[in-house]
Amino acid sequence: MANDPHRPSYHFLPPTNWMNDPNGVVQWKGNYHLFYQYNPCGPLFGKAHWGHAVSNDLVHWAHLPIALAPTPGTVDEDGCWSGCIVNNNGVPTIIYSGNRNWKQFPCIATSQDDLLTWEKYAGNPVITAPAPGLEIVDFRDHCVWKEDGTWYQLIGSGIKGVGGTALLYRSKDLLQWEYMHPLCIGDKSTTEAMWECPDFFPLNDKYVLVVSPLPLARTLYFIGTYSDHRFTPEFQGTLDAGSHFYAPQTLCDDKGRRIMWGWLREGRSNELIQEAGWAGMMSLPRILTLRPDNTLGMVPAPELANLRGKHYHDADITVAEIPQTVEDVQGAALEIIAVFARGDASAFGIAIFGLHDHAEEIPILYDYASGHLEIDNTRSNASSVIHYEVESGPVTENERLKLHIFIDGSVIEVFANDTTCITERIYLSHHDHSGIGLFAHGGNAKIISLDIWEMQPIWTQRQG
Ligand code: DQQ
């Protein structure tokens, strides 16, 4: 594993095997706890367990023992699926979906030792009749919060023939739940038939609902108003324009920051995954904010700057059609901040080269005509089994475009103008990225400033 060039060195992932959704993200006694869907038996999806890690700085993580495992003969015998953690008068409490024979049931577990080991409630499942009077498709994944002394819970679902939804329940004790109504209902023609992993939270004076609709494969967010326990969306966006970021979850930390992690799934065949022995990683922690125009701001957590090593800086660079390779910048673990000014070019960007002859090259390109940022990984590997795609997402028209790029083995995370995010999985056949190139099409562009850092691995020191 340690020598696998596709494994990241500063994105969180388990030591081996399969990982998917983040679960139960919470700050507890000053430490950040990250749980996740984990298959301890192999590199493909299987009977989900809850893996667990802890950090005191959002960046360096220490692996802890598996927190939840399926219990034979119960409703979670086929997997402890996704859920969240709340603090119930000092008792950490997990609400998760037990899976039995591909049917899910809301279950509870509590910890008496600061999240290390967990005891399942003997009365699981805590909800048996999902939503009286509604014909629903699927019923899983949990977001729980306390409001005026009462617990509220959202469960991901869909109303047959209508659209995805998040069903709202309330409770006094987290054990007896009363169904209220759908928090809001989507239109299956635009936001699909089933909403997985709902996450609902305040952001300044608005509320945000994040869902991962099946089978869209992209995570959506709605910004709107919440009153009388009903949510009215006013703005809708895509959290990440790539097709690898999915099933995110957020926490609010003791600095009042809304911090999000998403599962970054693979973009390669199961055969290649079996060969590698691992699949899935966590996105970098993203700080969410409400921008003045009531859209979502997303920036990487500033703590990531603690990983910066060797620094390269340049300024006032004119870039043209022929890519310029940035001298003496090497490696597969880089952070790049490039601020471009509008030139007379029709498009410009930064390319990652995988081979000295540029036979493998991944342009990260901004195209003025479409106003889209694109990552084109169609030439990212000589072999033909890699899943190719060109991702793009709107970037607001701006005199300057700031590209904040994280390269880490087989992942690129791009933040454009602190709002649009694109995450791509890349599997260059040569192990070290031979370089970084700057290019423009249809004229010249200018780079006001360019900063590149080599990033240190996160596994050198144990934290928390
Ligand atoms: N993954 C979990 C489900 C959830 C899905 C199972 C989303 O609870 O709906 O691993 O990726």
Textual characterization of the structure:
With 464 residues, this protein is an all-beta fold. The chain contains two helices and 34 strands. Strand 27 (361-367) and strand 28 (372-376) form a beta hairpin. The radius of gyration is 22 Å and the shape is globular. The chain starts with 16 loop residues before the first strand and ends in a 9-residue tail after the last strand. 48% of the residues are buried. The model has no long low-confidence stretch (mean pLDDT 92). The chain binds 2,5-dideoxy-2,5-imino-D-mannitol. 2,5-dideoxy-2,5-imino-D-mannitol (DQQ) is lined by residues 20-21, 37, 48, 81-82, 97, 140-141, 196-197, 246-247. 2,5-dideoxy-2,5-imino-D-mannitol binds next to strand 1, strand 5, strand 9, strand 13 and strand 17.
Which tags fit this structure?
464 residues, mainly beta, 6-stranded antiparallel β-sheet, 55% strand, globular, binds 2,5-dideoxy-2,5-imino-D-mannitol
Bound molecules: 2,5-dideoxy-2,5-imino-D-mannitol
For the sheet with most strands, the description reads:
6 strands, antiparallel
- Total of DSSP H or I helical runs spanning 4+ residues: 2
Shape summary: globular
> Quick one: how many beta strands?
34
List low-pLDDT spans. none
- The overall pLDDT average reads 92
Structural class: mainly beta
Assembly level: single chain
Distance between the termini: 24 Å
Summarize the structure.
The chain has 464 residues and is an all-beta fold.
Annotate the secondary structure layout.
Elements: E1 17-28, E2 31-39, E3 49-55, E4 62-68, E5 80-88, E6 91-100, E7 103-110, E8 119-120, E9 136-147, E10 150-159, E11 163-171, E12 178-185, H1 188-191, E13 194-203, E14 206-214, E15 220-227, E16 230-238, E17 245-252, E18 258-264, H2 270-276, E19 278-279, E20 281-282, E21 286-290, E22 296-300, E23 308-319, E24 324-325, E25 333-341, E26 347-353, E27 361-367, E28 372-376, E29 390-394, E30 400-408, E31 411-416, E32 420-425, E33 435-441, E34 445-455
Parallel strand pairs: 1-19
Antiparallel strand pairs: 1-2, 2-3, 3-4, 5-6, 6-7, 7-8, 9-10, 10-11, 11-12, 13-14, 14-15, 15-16, 17-18, 18-20, 18-21, 21-22, 23-34, 24-33, 25-30, 25-34, 26-27, 26-33, 27-28, 28-29, 30-31, 31-32
The chain binds 2,5-dideoxy-2,5-imino-D-mannitol.
Residues 20-21, 37, 48, 81-82, 97, 140-141, 196-197, 246-247 line the site of 2,5-dideoxy-2,5-imino-D-mannitol.
